[in-house]
User: Fold these one by one.
Assistant:
Number 1:
Amino acid sequence: MFNVLVCDDDKAIVRSIEIYLKADGYNTLAAYNGIEAVNILMENEVHCIIMDIMMPGMDGISATLKIRERSNVPIIFLSAKSEDADKIAGLGIGGDDYVTKPFNPLEVCARVKSQIRRYTTLGTVPSENSRILRTGGLELDIDGRSVTVDGEEVRLTATEYRILEYLMLNMGRTLSSTQIYENVWNEAAIGSDKIITVHIRRIREKIEIDTKNPKYIKVVWGIGYKVDKI
């Protein structure tokens, strides 16, 4: 059974999400501020976190920074419509997705399912005939779900991995933000440009020596992104 940590200072929201998650077969853990969320993660195996952004004590952004020091567990942010800057900041420091309040609990459950599916495919044991995508010093092992640059392993979140995998599976082809979003999230892309931009920046920070002059992920202005064969 998968464990989902729900963190929001509004206990009614936590209870509401927990009801739907439990109905879908998930075990839930509750926290009401960032400090509690970090402590629970240290003591329990967690497969996905639903994290409110604005909370007293330690907010969701600060908690995510702490969590990313030790874990790549998927993090879905909850945010008000007026918190667009916070959403982008959250994705920029390692969040995987966000849901805007007020939200449909069924949508939250669908996003949890999607994130856990990606997360649990990472770190699987590679087969003897692992499929390797390679360009220059960048290697992506499809079966092993791992990425290395010049022989050094790179830690990507599940979402970052899926974006890079999709780009490398289509090496040499320019892909729009819409195409990337719909392939990785498996849903219609509405206002997805900023989300993809932030995730691409995060990936570049991990695989590029010079993010201002990227070697691997290139932007084709007005069209999208691509990875060329080197």
Note: The chain is about 40% helix and 20% strand.
Number 2:
Amino acid sequence: MITRDKFIETFGGVFEHSPWIAERAFDQGHIAEPLRAGPLHEALCTEFRGATLDERLAVLLAHPDLAGKLAIAGELTEHSKSEQAGAGLDRLSEAEHARFTDLNTHYVREFGFPFIIAVKGLTKEDILAAFETRIGHDRETEFETACAQVEKIAGFRIAAILAEG
């Protein structure tokens, strides 16, 4: 039987810097062994969806800008570093980096949280296209889109953790 501490240590980071989601899922008795990706993902997403708007916003704010300052400084979480590298965001040209920086700045100014997209399987061109489309959304639509992307990212991370273990 997995202990609470081990569960939070293992899955507390699947929602960026938000271990409270794993804590709540465990404490509510929503975690059943054997741990399987689908049910585990659903349990964590249920807690995320049931959180207050401010708590959900805090999860969005915990995400780094794509190809942003944290990436340049080497301060991304291991999950984020791997995900961004997989999409080629660690190998941008100067012009591409400038474009991402401009879009990140405009997006945060417009919505109050960073642009979030599950980059697994996407190219930098796919990401830029999504960026340019989504920047035209209203805030409510984009908030829900960003939350859905956070859940998708969590699903990829859970699957990767379970595959390692």
Note: Residues 139-164 form the longest helix (26 residues).
Number 3:
Amino acid sequence: MKTLFRSMAGRWLSAVAMLALAAPSVASTINQNVSWTIDRAGTTAKYRVVAYGDSIYAGYNGSISNAARYSAPTVDAEYLSARWNADIESVRRAKSGAVARDVYENKIVAERSYMQATSTRVVTFEMCGNDGLQARSSFKSQTGTCSYGGLDAAVNSCKTYVAAAMDFINANAHPNTRLKVISNLYYPGYNADNVQSSCRDATTGQTVNLRDRFLPALAKMNYWMCEYARQKGFQCTDSFAQYMGADYDSNGDGLVDSDALRYVAGESEASYLNRTTVTLRSTLRDANAKFVTSSSTFDYIQSDDVHPTYTGGTVTAGIWGGSSGTGAPRYTSFTDGKSPVWNRYGHDRMGWALSVYNPASP
């Protein structure tokens, strides 16, 4: 009987593991909450960064029990620790696999107490990636006549809950909060999506290129993340530009690609879409090979072709609960505001991009 029980338990755990590992690309979800304090030597003051999101801010790495210690918000905490000469508590309330509505309702709203602490100085969030991934998976499975309704629904849901999240954070974050910032979406699988669909367009009768369909939808999400940020008192970290554009001028237009792709405050949706998906389309590159110079690349995407790469170890975060911990910063000072690995890993790049908005003092 004991042998049978162990066998059944093993199969149950295996099933749970398979379900959780699939979480970021299907409807299944898994909470991955972490609190990690950057403990700077010789300091006593401690402030808090609160981050809400899905598997990106969670630091998802394919595991059901652990996640990256230094996902983007904790990287930002490291920069803040040096800037303010203080200890910084990075509180990540994340749910891998969650669509925008889930992040809004079950993280930002349900767990608002974390941003209401008097020590809170930064509140950041990201969402909508799973809305896009699920719409993409659904579209890829279509046969017969193509339906684009799922992509449109993902864009509309993203717009709805990004705006709602900003309004809620504005109303509920502690008055001591100095910075509110959102991160928009990079395009995982950019090269892999350069294939034809199995369905056919109702007008032309031809199959369509998946990337040609997905890129404008993602660009619409990104535009409204940054535009709502402008309207509602947030900053917008343009992760699309940071991941998808090279850090040099590849097309001779006089602008570094990653700068040229960035959202421009006040521009129209039509202008942004034309610039990023048409005019500068040739400068977009898959983030598996992020060009930091014309001859050097780093891999910003893990082997799942979805989640950012990271360094700095892992922490417990998954179906057995979250964790809290404390550790010395990896780096205690930053030349020109950049760590030695600022452009080598996806999470470090996103964390640096968040840090450029950090206030000079708490």
Note: The first strand starts at residue 30 and ends at 31.
Number 4:
Amino acid sequence: MVPPIGTGHMTSLHQSRELAEAAAEKLRVFAQPQRLMILSCLLGGERQVAEIERLTGVSQPALSQQLAELRRASLVMTRRDAKLVFYSLADGDVRTCVATMEHMLAGADGPAPISQATPPSIRRPIAIARGRSDPSFGAAAFARIG
């Protein structure tokens, strides 16, 4: 059995076809604009569906579909309070992955700077990925933390 990505298992992707396939599947879930918008929105903390809809502009039917996909992929979790349903990122690995994507890809001027305000759990993977000369390292590091 292949351990889930992000569980601390340190096998490199090039050493395991199964692990590479699991990483590719996880990345496939991330690789959809509405899902990325939802995940980015949840970086700000737990939110109700109506709030996610308002902040992202994703309409209710599409939002429900994308949230279901994110739940199936174990990227978000839910909490009920009476009739209200709250969504949040599933864990620190998902948070790090989404925040890393934002740092690496957001903005037209290239990657966002790493500042002291950036949490250490996010600063380290970004700094490591940027500091390596091997272009494949960034993707492998990203897949390991996702």
Note: Residues 128-146 have pLDDT under 50 and may be disordered.
